[in-house]
Amino acid sequence: MGCASNTETFGAGPHAWLLDNQTRLHLQHGPIDLIIDATGDAREVRRAFKQAFVSFQDILTTLAAQLPVLRTPYVGSDDHQFDGSVANRMKQAVQPFAECRVTPMAAVAGAVADHVLSCLLRGRTLSKVQVNNGGDIALFLDATSEYNIGICCDPEKNSFTDSISLTAQQGIGGVATSGWKGRSHSLGIADAVTVLANNAASADVAATLIANAVDIPSAAEVIRMPANELQPDSDLNSRLVTVNVLPLSTAQCKQALNAGENCAKKMLALGQIHSCYLHVQGQTRTLSLNPTSHVFPRSERYAYR
């Protein structure tokens, strides 16, 4: 991220820092940590940043007040009541996956990014904006802009298999990455699963579920522990999460990737995601509805049709 060239605090409570000659904004409150990059007229950027900070003020407190229901698996029941834009975005993102009994917390990072992006853009004229919440990104592009992104294959090594170029015409508003090496617990063994979707909350949930599916349930090489032993308040409770994966055979990697690919194909068929990139110990699967678009990287391996 680099050092701040200019700093400013807009108010008490959540903190804000202007970075890189005021072209980026860093917002932080408790575990929520956003980097916002905006391109446009300097006055418009400044106004947008102030709007982002205002929208950020009560996110954490509003979410914290309803953690019990947000940590409950969503099964499509009308009994679930949600307060605030972020929580409702979380609910909307998990609704298509009610059969998976996923909790709304699976969408929290992406939903926060989507909410701040929406508030930041209100009434503003900007050419490009990204709101990065720990790697889950909400994205806005005007008709003339492009956004280049590297596809991570191993977060620990910060290595990338390829890069892709996104435009507004592709309709992609969210990018999310999940896997057992990431900041959240995973039930699977994917080093990284990156998903492109209409918004960041949807990409967040899909990446989580696909990464969970990339698995070999009975493999002795996979070390697991109950989630609540690692994090007492985990929404996964006592479910076993991956804490280490020893070297796997080529056949084992293929088996795990096949399982993740089957999960991703269902989401692609329903239009829930645009593209998906799966990585396990140097082996990669890439799936997209449109393999000829800029969304699909140069190192094409698999295309869903």
Short description:
The chain has 305 residues and is of the alpha+beta class. It contains 8 helices and 13 strands.
Q: Would you write up a description of this structure?
A:
With 305 residues, the chain is of the alpha+beta class. It has two domains: 1-144, no CATH class; 152-162 and 174-305, no CATH class. 29% of the residues lie in helices and 27% in strands. The chain contains eight helices and 13 strands. The chain has a nine-stranded antiparallel beta sheet with strand order 1-2-3-4-5-8-9-12-13. It has a two-stranded antiparallel ribbon with strand order 6-7. Strand 12 (275-280) and strand 13 (283-288) form a beta hairpin. Helix 1 packs across helix 5 and helix 5 (108-121) runs antiparallel to helix 6 (200-213). The chain is globular and about 55 Å long. The model is unreliable at 1-12 and 298-305 (pLDDT under 50).
Segments where pLDDT lies below 50 for 5+ residues?
1-12, 298-305
Q: DSSP strand (E) fraction?
A: 25-35%
- Largest sheet report: 9 strands, antiparallel
Helix content: 25-40%
Count of alpha and pi helical runs: 8
Which class best fits the helix and strand makeup? alpha+beta
Gap from first CA to last CA: 39 Å
Overall 3D shape: globular
How many domains? The number is: 2
Total strands: 13
